[in-house]
Amino acid sequence: MSAVVPGTDDAPRPAPARASGRPGSRAILVLAVVAVLGLVAGLLLSRFVVNPADAAARTAPPAAGPITVPVESRELSNDVTLRGDVVYDDAVDLRVETADLGERAVVTSQVPEVGATLDAGSVALEIAGRPVIVLPGVLPTYRTLRSGVSGPDVVQLKQALAALGIAAGDPGSDLYDAATAAGVAALYQRVGYPVPSATDEQTAAVTEAELTVRSAQQEVSAATTALSSAAAGSAAPSALLSADATVRQAERARDVAQATLDGVRAACTGGTTEPGTDCSSAAMLGLENAVADAQDAVGVAQAARAEAGAGPSTAVESAALAAAQQSLTDAQAQLADAREQTLTALPASEVVYLETVPRRVDAVNVRRGGTVDGTVMSVSGATLQVTASAASTDAALLAVGATGTVPLDGAEIPVTVSAIAATTTTDGSDDPGSGSSSTGRFTVTFQLGELTSDQVAALQGTNVRVSVPVSSTGGAVLAVPLAALTAGPGGESRVEVMGDDDQSVLVEVTTGLAAGGYVEVTGVGAGLHEGDLVVVGTTGAGATDGATTGTGSDG
Questions:
Q1: First to last CA, the chain
Q2: For 549, which DSSP code?
Q3: 3 state SS for 129-182
């Protein structure tokens, strides 16, 4: 028996530790997990695997069938639809003629607010403490109107005053006379401003003319006395005294007539005539004739006095008296002219004319304390309107007086066509012969119906849609889609009506207005009723991707 030596390869080894489980059980567990996963995967894959026969059945088109819609009762209409801007009508720029004012054209008061209304006889502005009065008229202001001037602007003034109920003389005359001046004075009294005063030169001319008249009257008196003295001595004292008395009576009558004429002229010139005072040209001429007649009476009395003297020759004295009388007549004429120049005038800076009134103030370009330079404000008519641009084809369908609607906050605002005009353009040349050319479009103006203040505020300055019916059935009619119509062998129109048994029948119809994809129809023979189902197409076999196939035509 051999001995075992420690540390050699032949030394006995310890036995290995024994596993706690069996190797076969682990393999079985792995196989079970794999089997379950395979089963789940198979089930999932089986949902994506389609039987060819099932796939064919699913993709086959459905059975062919008609598409039907009911016959409707509705009103049909064709409309012209335009876009338009809501603006106030007839906008113009207001200018004031301030050439006579020079550097004094300062706005002092009465500056209107935007939205204010200017009417005939109202004050648009106050410049240098004086009013700018609005009057109706088409001619612009270009000169100051005063006594003696004539022209179409005088006629316009008289017509404007007459429209305000103010008398201004003969409306058929274009002469600015005393009656016209009195009418202008009444206008200033109505607006609450003093009448325009005469210039210093005009006042001085009147004063000088009055002095000349008085001097001429003194010369006439002196010449009369000289003539009387020269003729005295040959007649009886009583006869001479009587003749002298007659002369003095005639002179007093003349002075009364002259004083009467002067008083009436002063009253008419000052614009403060008393009731019953006649300032007409005829009345003034009558007073002047009375003065002339009284003067003639003085001459006759003086001549009689001279004859009563039957004294020495008085030719020199008579000639002197005649000259003095002529000088007096001339002086009186100059005084009348001077006073006429002081009649109430209408300065160019105190009036503006507008073709139509009332007008609305759209913009104000001046302020109190500022100087007037150019346009003082922009005004327009007081009525809102819609202006739209239309193609010639649309304009041809419209007529003045046609009605339509504008939508506003769920409501329909009525409108009426008031004007249709071709839109023109110019080439911008200064050549008057260049003319204008048509753009092929038309400007259509609509007048809006009655509006509330809220509606005015909501519409002003907006762009709106205007719809104008140009053809309509005038009420509810039977209507079907255009696709429901088919043409018969004779060209007649037909619709295919489906019955309750799913059987269809062709019904001949008479067509009317077509609008909005529908057409008015009336059944012929068998008739047609609201709610009947008419075929507009088919679906199913022959259609692609579920699309429908129409069988109708537009007839």
A1: 129
A2: B
A3: CEEEEEEECCCCCCCCECCCCECHHHHHHHHHHHHCCCCCCCCCCCECCHHHHH
Model pLDDT for residues 141-187, shown as the tens digit of each residue: 999 998 889 999 999 999 999 999 999 989 889 999 989 999 999 99
* Residues, the chain: 555
Residue 172: Cβ within 10 Å count? 7
Question: Which residue's structure tokens are 């103006």?
Answer: 445
Q: What pTM was estimated for this model as a whole?
A: 0.47
Name the β-bridge partners of 445: 387, 419
Q: Are 125 and 110 in contact (CB under 8 A)?
A: yes
Burial class (CB in 10 A: 0-12, 13-18, 19+), 329: middle
Amino acid at 545: D
The token pair that represents 519 in the structure block: 């057409």
Q: Which two tokens stand for residue 151?
A: 């022209």
- pLDDT tens per residue across span 438-469: 668 999 999 998 888 888 888 888 999 999 98
Q: How far apart are CA 454 and CA 407, in angstroms?
A: 14
Q: By CB neighbour count within 10 A (0-12 exposed, 13-18 middle, 19+ buried), where does 180 fall? A: buried
Give residue 479's pLDDT. 93
CB 515 within 8 A of CB 502: no
Q: Residue 349: name the closest of 517, 57, 108, 112 by CA.
A: 108
